[in-house]
Design goal:
This protein is α/β, with parallel strands linked by helices. The chain folds into two domains: 436 residues, Alkaline Phosphatase, subunit A (3-Layer(aba) Sandwich), CATH 3.40.720.10; 67 residues, Arylsulfatase, C-terminal domain (2-Layer Sandwich), CATH 3.30.1120. It has eleven helices and 19 strands. The structure holds calcium ion. Calcium ion binds next to loops.
C-alpha cells in the first residue's frame, strides 16, 4: 500500500502539505506573551462559580453538564450565531484554536521525521515540515495514566494517590476541584473537548459506577464541554465509548456490568477458552473477558451494540474530532485529541493492514498518521489552519510485546522505536519518557525547523497560558512552568523511581526493582540499587554510569529530586 495515499488520497483538496507557506515571524522558543494583547480578566475563582458565574461573558459559550451531543451541537449553533452578532466569536489572533494530539505509546523513533524506517508517516512529516520538530521533550511518566495526569493538571503524578496505570473501573483521578488545561481554555471562552483515549478514571467512586446511567463524575467536571472517550484503554474493560457521561450507543437490551475482582456467572473468559481470541491472541495477561475476539484485562458483561470494534476505533475518534471542529468552527476551541493508536491491542482497520513492514504495530502507526491527516485536512477545509496551534506528542515511550501476539518483536526489523535511546515504556531510561513533539502555528513558529530545548509536558498548562496571554488562578498547575524557565525535567518510571535530567546529566535514583519489566516486554527498567549518573552529551544511550567519578553532580541532582518529591 502506498502510505502517502492514506493521507492525501482521501482529501486531495485539503492536504496539509499544500497551499501553506507560513511566514517565519519567530521561532517557537522565542514566542512571547507580549505577542498577545493583555488578558481579558483574571480567572481565579472557584469551579462552581466559574462555570456559571454571572461575571462570565456570554460569549464564553458554556454548556450545561447534562446536555447530549445533539443539544451541544444546537447550543453551539446558537452560541456561534450570538458570537457572530457580538463580534467576539471566531478564533482570533488573541484566541487561536488549540489542538493537542496525544498519541499513545508512540516512541521517539516511531515517526518518519524522527527516523522511522519500518513505516511511513507522510501526514505527520508534513506537519513537521510546517512547524517545529522538538528533539528533547519528556513525558512526566513512562506510562499513560500518570503522564496524562500531568499534562492535564500541570502537577507531578506522585503528588496524587491513584495515578498509577488505572483500571477501567477507577474513579476519576483528577478531582473536579483541580484546575485543568481544559479550564484554562474554558475560562477564556473556548469550546473544549476531550476525544479518544481517557484512562484517567470516571465516576466519583472506584468500582461503584453505574454504566447504565449517567456517570456522576466525568470530564465535564474538569472543564470539557464535550467528551467522546474510551472509558480507560483498549486492553481494559469496559469496551465502550463514553459520550458526555453516558455510554455511547447504549444498548438497553444488554446492561453493562464491570468488575476487576471477579467474573460474572456464565460469562466466558480467554483463560478458560483461548479459542475465543479469533481476532488477536494474547501473549501474556489479557485473558479475562473477551470482546470482539480479543482478550482484555478485567471482567465485563453486556454492552451489546455499544461494544466497540477495535478496527473501527480510529475512525470513530477521527469522525468525532472532525465533527467537534465543524460544530465549533465559528468560536475558538481547544481539543484534547488522544488517539488509541498505537496502544495494544493493535488491531487497525483493514485499510492499514500491510501499510508498514512491521505488522500490526507499524500498521497502527500508519493509522495514527492517517488520523492526523484526517483531522488536519478537516481543519484546512474549515479555513482554520492558519489560526490553530497544533501540538502533536506522545504520552510515553514505546513497547513491542505488550500482551498481545501481534508479532511486533519479530517484525520490527531495523526500526528502532526509541530511536537512539535506551529502555522503553515503563522504564527509567530515556526511552520511557522521551517522546516526539511537533508544534505547528502558522506565522508564529518557524516552519521546517527543529529545537533541542529541554521540555517537560508538565509545562503545557502554564506555557500555553503564557504564550496566549491567559491568566492562571492562584495555585493552579503547581509544578507547571513557563517552558523557557525550565532547566531540568523529572521523570517517573512505573515503579515510581524518579530520574532527573538537565541538558547534560541524567540521574536515576536507587531502586530495588527488577532489571527488566517482569511481565514479558523485555524492556530494561533502568532500576539499580546504586545511584546512576549519565553524561547524556557524550553517552545518550545511558551505558556508562559515572556517579562514582562525579559524586558532587550526582548528589546535587539527588537533592533536587528530594526537594520536589
Ligand atoms: Ca501510553
Amino acid at each position: 500500500m502506498d502510505a502517502s495515499k492514506l493521507c492525501f488520497g482521501h482529501f486531495p483538496k485539503h492536504s496539509p502539505i499544500f497551499g501553506k507557506n507560513p511566514s517565519l515571524l519567530r521561532a517557537f522558543p522565542e514566542a512571547h506573551a507580549d505577542f498577545w494583547r493583555k488578558p481579558l480578566s483574571a480567572s481565579g475563582i472557584s469551579r462552581s462559580t466559574r462555570r456559571f458565574s454571572a461575571k462570565t461573558p456570554l460569549c464564553f459559550g458554556h454548556f450545561p453538564k447534562h446536555t447530549g451531543g445533539s443539544l451541544i451541537g444546537m447550543a453551539a449553533s446558537v452560541v456561534a450565531s450570538a458570537l457572530a452578532l457580538s463580534g467576539c466569536g471566531r478564533s482570533s489572533r488573541e484566541t487561536p484554536n488549540v489542538l493537542l494530539i496525544l498519541a499513545d505509546d508512540l516512541g521517539y523513533g516511531d515517526l518518519g521525521c524522527y527516523g522511522a524506517v519500518g513505516v511511513s508517516t507522510p501526514c505527520v512529516d508534513a506537519l513537521s515540515s510546517e512547524g517545529v520538530r522538538f528533539t528533547n521533550v519528556h513525558a512526566t511518566a513512562s506510562t499513560s495514566t500518570p503522564s496524562r495526569y500531568s499534562i492535564l493538571t500541570g502537577e507531578y503524578p506522585w503528588r496524587k494517590a491513584g495515578t498509577d496505570v488505572a483500571a477501567g473501573n477507577a474513579g476519576m483521578i483528577i478531582s473536579p476541584s483541580q484546575y485543568t488545561l481544559a479550564d484554562l481554555f474554558k475560562a477564556r471562552g473556548y469550546a473544549t473537548a476531550a476525544i479518544g483515549k481517557w484512562h484517567l478514571g470516571l465516576g466519583s467512586q472506584t468500582g461503584e459506577q453505574d454504566w447504565n446511567s449517567r456517570l456522576d463524575e466525568d470530564p465535564s467536571d474538569l472543564g470539557f464541554d464535550y467528551h467522546y472517550i474510551m472509558a480507560a484503554t483498549a486492553d481494559r474493560v469496559p469496551c465502550v465509548f463514553i459520550e458526555n457521561g453516558s455510554v455511547a450507543s447504549y444498548d438497553p437490551s444488554a446492561p453493562i456490568e464491570v468488575s476487576y475482582a471477579q467474573n460474572f456467572p456464565g460469562e466466558p473468559t480467554l483463560r478458560d477458552d483461548p479459542s475465543l481470541a479469533y481476532n488477536l491472541a494474547s501473549s501474556h495477561g489479557h485473558d479475562q473477558s473477551v470482546v470482539n475476539g480479543i482478550g482484555r484485562i478485567g471482567y465485563m458483561k453486556g454492552g451489546g451494540r455499544a461494544l466497540w470494534k477495535d478496527e473501527n476505533i480510529a475512525d470513530s475518534i477521527a469522525v468525532h474530532a472532525c465533527r467537534f471542529m465543524e460544530q465549533h468552527s465559528r468560536e475558538p476551541f481547544f481539543m484534547y485529541l488522544a488517539t488509541n493508536d498505537i496502544h495494544v491491542p493493535r488491531f487497525p482497520s483493514e485499510r492499514f493492514r500491510g501499510a508498514s513492514s512491521m505488522g500490526l504495530r507499524g500498521d497502527a502507526i500508519a493509522q495514527f498518521d492517517w488520523t492526523v491527516g484526517r483531522v488536519l485536512s478537516a481543519l484546512d477545509s474549515l479555513g482554520l489552519s492558519d489560526n490553530t496551534l497544533v501540538i502533536l506528542t506522545s504520552d510515553n515511550g514505546p513497547v513491542l510485546d505488550d500482551g498481545y501476539a501481534d508479532r511486533a518483536e519479530e517484525l520490527v526489523g531495523s526500526h528502532s522505536p526509541t530511536g537512539h535511546l535506551r529502555g522503553g515504556k515503563y522504564s527509567a531510561f530515556e526511552g520511557g519518557t522521551a517522546v516526539p513533539m511537533i508544534v505547528r502555528w502558522p506565522g508564529r513558529v518557524a516552519a521546517g525547523s527543529s529545537s533541542e530545548r529541554l521540555i517537560s509536558q508538565v509545562d503545557f498548562l502554564r506555557s500555553l497560558a503564557v504564550l496566549l496571554g491567559f491568566d492562571l488562578p492562584e495555585g493552579a498547575g503547581r509544578d507547571s512552568r513557563d517552558y523557557r524557565q525550565r532547566e531540568y525535567v523529572l521523570e517517573q518510571a512505573s515503579d515510581h523511581t524518579l530520574s532527573l535530567r538537565d541538558s547534560r546529566w541524567k540521574y536515576i535514583e536507587p531502586s530495588s526493582g527488577p532489571e527488566t519489566v517482569p511481565w514479558g516486554t523485555g524492556i530494561e527498567t533502568g532500576y539499580r540499587p546504586e545511584p546512576q549518573l549519565y553524561d547524556l552529551s557524550a553517552d545518550p544511550h545511558e551505558t556508562l554510569n559515572v556517579a562514582a567519578s562525579h559524586p558532587a553532580i550526582a548528589d546535587s541532582l539527588f537533592r533536587i529530586i528530594n526537594n520536589l518529591r
